[in-house]
Specification:
Blueprint lengths: L3 E4 L3 H10 L16 E5 L2 E9 L2 E9 L13 H11 L3 H15 L9 H6 L1 H21 L18 H25 L1
Antiparallel strand pairs: 1-2, 3-4
Length: 186
């Protein structure tokens, strides 16, 4: 995908091309709707052609990536897909197998699978689960989470002299606070 493109179409050339295709141009549009630009980048406004019946109109569009979240407190569509895929493990695979079988037999898929169809899904779903587990194991090993391997890359920090000094100062301050609170109560 390119992050920029040039727009050097003249209004007169655009009108001739649309007329040659025997399409209409809205009467309210002018050459100002098709500005020339050397560089249209992401988050820039630029014209796009939109079909409205037999008329091709120019609409201004923001060339940008979709927002992460539509509103505060609401997850994006990608997040919803991820949650949906983790909630129903195996359901998507079962639906995929059922659709493939229906297409192979040349019939529409049934709304609810019968007992024979449900039972025939057991072995393929088990194969899907084994493949998924294998992929997860390989991914975990690639990240250093092999059995018997240390849990983290970093080692546990050592206890130094400055740590001893810090503990001693903290205990002295605690003892001082306790003694002041006892004197204040007396």
């Amino acid at each position: 995908m390119y992050s920029a493109y040039e727009q050097h179409v003249k209004w007169v050339e655009y009108c001739k091309m649309i007329q040659a295709l025997e399409l209409g141009i809205p009467t309210q549009q002018t050459g100002l709707d098709l500005p020339e630009s050397d560089d249209v980048r992401i988050n820039d406004m630029a014209p796009v052609m939109r079909a409205a019946g037999n008329v091709i109109e120019l609409a201004s569009m923001n060339f940008s990536f979709p927002r992460r979240a539509q509103r505060a407190g609401r997850s994006s569509t990608i997040g919803r897909r991820r949650v949906a895929s983790t909630k129903a493990i195996g359901v998507a695979e079962a639906q995929q197998i059922r659709l493939a079988r229906a297409m192979k037999q040349g019939r529409p898929p049934r709304r609810f699978p019968g007992p024979v169809e449900s039972f025939s899904l057991v072995i393929p779903l088990l194969a899907f689960a084994i493949r998924r587990a294998g992929r997860a194991a390989i991914a975990m090993e690639a990240r250093g989470l092999a059995p018997g391997a240390p849990r983290t890359i970093t080692t546990a920090p050592r206890f130094h002299r400055r740590d001893v000094a810090f503990v001693a100062v903290a205990l002295a301050m605690l003892a001082l606070c306790i003694s002041w609170s006892i004197r204040a109560d007396a």
